[in-house]
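The aim of this short unit is practical: by the end, you should be able to scan a pair of folded records and say something sensible about each. We start with the first protein, listed as its amino acid sequence and then its C-alpha cells.
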Amino acid sequence: MKRITVAAVALLCAANLPAITLEECYRLVRENYPLIKQYELTEKTSQYSFENAAMGYVPRIALSAQASYQSDAVAFPDEFNSLLKMAGVEMNALPKDQYKVQLEISQTIWDGGYSKAQREAVKAQQEVSMLTLDKDIDALKTRINQMYFGILIMEANIRTSMYMDTLLTSNMSAVETAVANGAAMQSDIDNIKVELLTLRQQRTQLESTLKTYKDMLAIMIGRKIEDDEVFEKPEIQLVDMSQNRRTELMLFDARIRQIDSQKKMLDVAVMPKFALFAQGWYGRPGLNMFNDMMSRNLTWNGIAGITMKWDITGFYTRKNDRHKIDLSKRSVEVQRDAFRWNTDIQQTQIKNEIDRMYEVMESDDEIIRLRESVRKASETKYRNGVITLNDLLRDITNENNAIVSGSLHELELLKNIYDLKVVLNQ
C-alpha cells in the first residue's frame, strides 16, 4: 500500500506540470532521426527512374552529319563506258567526296514487355528501400524504451529514497530524545547520521544517472527536456501474440517481389522488338546512284519502314541466370524463416517474463504492507528500549527495499510489455 501512497503523492505534485509520454517519444525520434530525410531522397530517385522507364515508347529522334573521302567509288567498267559514249551518254564514277546530313525517327511498336517490367522493377526497388528505412527507424523504439523506463525507474528510486530519508529523520528526533534521557547512546545518533549520509550519497548517484538518461533521450527526440517535466507511466496493454507485424517480414516479402521482377526482366530481355522508322537526309550520294554519276548536286532522300530486332544471345545464359535468381529468392526465404524463428524465441522469452512479473506483483503490496507494519512496531519497541537501533534500521531498510522492489517489478512489467509490442511491431 505504501507504493500506492508514494505514487499518489507524486501524481498530485505533478498534476499541473508539463508531461511527456512514451508515444510522444516514439513520434519525436522518428521525426528527429537524421535518416528520415532519406525517405524524400529515395522517393524522388524512384520517381525519376520510373519516368525514365516509361520512356520506352517515346519516339527516338537522332540528327547526324557526315563528310568523308574514300579511296575508290562505284563506277561503270571502261568497256561499258565506251558503249555509253557511243550512244552519247557520259557516266562518271561516283564522287569520292561524300556528304550527308540525316534525321532519323523511330517509334517502338512493341518492346516485348521490357518497359513494363522495368517500371515494376523500379517500384520493387523503391519498396525495398523504404522498408529498409522503416526497419532502421523501428529499431529506435527499443532504445527509446531503455531510456524512458530507465528514467521512470530512477525517479521511483529517488522517491523511495526521499521517503526513507523522511523515516530516518523522524526517528533521529526519537533517538536524540532517548540520548537526552539517558536511554540511548550517542553512537545511535551517529549510526542514523551514517545511514542518512549514505542514503543521500546514493540519491546523488541516482540523480546523476537520471540526468544522463534524460540528456540521452533529449538528443534522440530532438528537444530539450525540462527539469519540471513529468514522465507519464504507460498503461498496461494487451499484446496479441499471433500478430507479428515486424517491418523485417514485410522487407523480406518486398525483396522476394524485387527478385521476381528481376526474373521477369530476364524473360522479356529475349523477346523480339518491333519499331517503325523513317530516315531523311540531304547529301550525296543519294538513293538514285545513276543520277549522282551524272550530276554532282546534293539531293534530298528518304526511307521509311518497320524493323524487327531479336537479340538471341540472352538465351545462352538464360538458364543459369534463372537458376541464380531462384537461389537468391530461396536465400531470402531462408533468412525470413530464420528471422521468424528468432523472433518467436524472443517473444516467448519476453512473454514468460511478463507472466512471471504478474505472479511476483501479486504479493508486492502485501509484502510492503507487512514491512511497514514491522517497521512501525520496531519504532515503538525502540522507544520502549526493547530492541536496539540496529534492529530498527534493519526494518526501515527492509521496508525501503520492499518499496523499491515493488516499483521495480511494476516498471519491469511495463517495459517487457512495450518491448514485446516493439518485437511484434504493434
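Turning to the second protein, read its sequence before its C-alpha cells, just as you did above.
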Amino acid sequence: METATKRAFTADKEFLRDLNELTTPVEKIYYRGNLDLLEGPCVAVVGSRSCTAYGIKVAEHIAGRLAENRITVISGLARGIDTVAHRAAVDAGGKTVGVLACGTDICYPASNGKLQKMMEKNHLILSEHPDGTTPRPYFFPLRNRIISCLSDAVVIVEAGNRSGALITAEYAAEQGKNLYAVPGNITNRSSHGCNMLIRDGVTPLILADDIITDLGLTPVTEDTAAEESLGAEEKIVLNIVRKNGEVSIEEIVHKTNKKAAEISGIITVLEMKGLIFFEMGKVLAAKF
C-alpha cells in the first residue's frame, strides 16, 4: 500500500496540474492509497446526505455500472449518496476515490471508518489538508471543486434545494465537465435540486450507459450481466412485469406490499438497466 504525504505538483501528472489551475488553486495534495487510479477515466457520483430509497437504488446502479466498465468512481465519503456510491463501486469489483474535507488521518463521519480504512489500502483517499486537520463547515464546499476537477463527468443523483451537491454541479459547469442530473419525483424535496438543474439545461440521466458512451467508451454488454446483478427485490418486480405483460406501478405496489417510493426506486433501476420501459402509463418488459 502506498501511504504518503506529498507535494502534489512536483509529480508529472496532468490531473494534479489541473488542480493548481483552479480559481482557488490546490497548493498541496495529501493522499493514502494508489494515486494512479486518477490516470484513467473518472466519474463523480454525488448527492444528498439525507437520501431516499430511490436515491440509494439509483446511486448503487450508476456507480456499479461505472465500476463494471473500469471507470473510477469519485465521491466525498460523506453520509448518504457518497457512501452508497463508494460501496457500490467496491461491490462491483471496481475502484473508487474519496476526497476529504479534513486530513487523511481523520475519519469523518466516524460511521465510515471501516470504509475509509479499506479505501486507503485498496483504493485512494486524498485531501488538500495536512494530517491532523479537523473538518470545518467551509472546507466542504471547497472540497467539491476537487471532486469535479478530478472527474471527466459529474452525476448529481439526488439533491435538495440546499444540497452541497449543487455546489459540485456549479464547479462542474465552470470547469466544462459533462454534467448529469437524475430526474426525481416533483413532489419530493430531495429531488428538487436535480429537477431544477434539468430545467436549467443540465442533461437528464435516463440511462447509466449514456455517461460511458459520452466519454467515448463502449459499454460492456449487460444483457445477461444486468439480470445476474439484480437484487432479490428487483427480481421480484421484474418477474411481476414479465408475468403480467404490462402492469401499473400501483399494481406492483399492491402485489409486493411495499411502499410506492421503494417500488419507484426499483423501477428506475430496472429501466436504467434496459430491462423494462414505460408506455401509456404502464410498465412493460423490454427483454425476455
